[in-house]
Amino acid sequence: MSFGLPTGQLFKSNNLHSWWDLHRLTEIEAFKAQCNDLTFKVLSCFAWHMGLPKDFFTTSHQDGLPRNTLKFIKYPKLAIKPDDAVPRLTEHTDWGSITLLFTDSPGLEVLDPQDQWHEVPQLPGGIVINIGDALSLWTGQQLKSTMHRISWEKVPVDQDRYSMPYFVHPNFSKCRATPLGQRLILSCVLLCEKCFMLTAGTGSHQPQISQGAREYGGKGDHIQRLL
Ligand SMILES: O=C(O)CCC(=O)C(=O)O
Ligand SMILES: [Fe+2]
């Protein structure tokens, strides 16, 4: 179930029964506004630490943040555990600027530069912030997008798992010149939107950039090519 913009617009998935009402939608909009405030603080911190003007990234995230999406995810329990080689959510990077991840379920793992997976510790009330491909490309990979996955280890197969990511994307029309050039980030984000449309259309819960792009005219290596 995803809550995108414009405010109040709802994209329903079949995985969860309908439970929302107007009261909840109001709460959700207020929560999204808090997510946007936090996003601006985080992006300002990144810019400041990189010696850039504090508004370097945030000015490209205004205009009502048209592509940010709050998503509620249910990983349903299964009768039989799949092969160990198949994680609950396959490894991927998110393709926006950052993702704020809210969950009280364990199971998230991140890959380090030595190709070792690490469990992300659960902090009560904590928010995991993943860097996405857009910010990585934008900063010439000074900020690296986080390769992550969900394992089966921590939430047994006979239990549902829930999480709530808030995906943040830059405005297409307002990206400022970057170390790698403005056109680069725009073409990446536009391509990724095509991936999203394609994979969303097939009912896939999480579009995989490389997979989605492969479906998009066989150009599966666009991220690698851009790097
Ligand atoms: O469910 C989670 O904890 C992570 C979800 C995620 O990585 C995604 O939807 O991109
Ligand atoms: Fe993700």
TrEMBL record:
GO terms for molecular function: metal ion binding; oxidoreductase activity. Residues 66-170 form the Fe2OG dioxygenase domain. It comes from the Eukaryota. Pfam families: 2OG-FeII_Oxy. InterPro entries: IPNS-like_FE2OG_OXY (IPR044861), IPNS-like_sf (IPR027443), Iron_ascorbate_oxido_reductase (IPR050231), Oxoglu/Fe-dep_dioxygenase_dom (IPR005123). Keywords: Iron, Metal-binding, Oxidoreductase. Belongs to the iron/ascorbate-dependent oxidoreductase family. PANTHER family: 2-OXOGLUTARATE (2OG) AND FE(II)-DEPENDENT OXYGENASE SUPERFAMILY PROTEIN-RELATED (PTHR47990). This is Clavaminate synthase-like protein. It comes from Aspergillus japonicus CBS 114.51. The lineage of its organism: Eukaryota, Fungi, Dikarya, Ascomycota, Pezizomycotina.
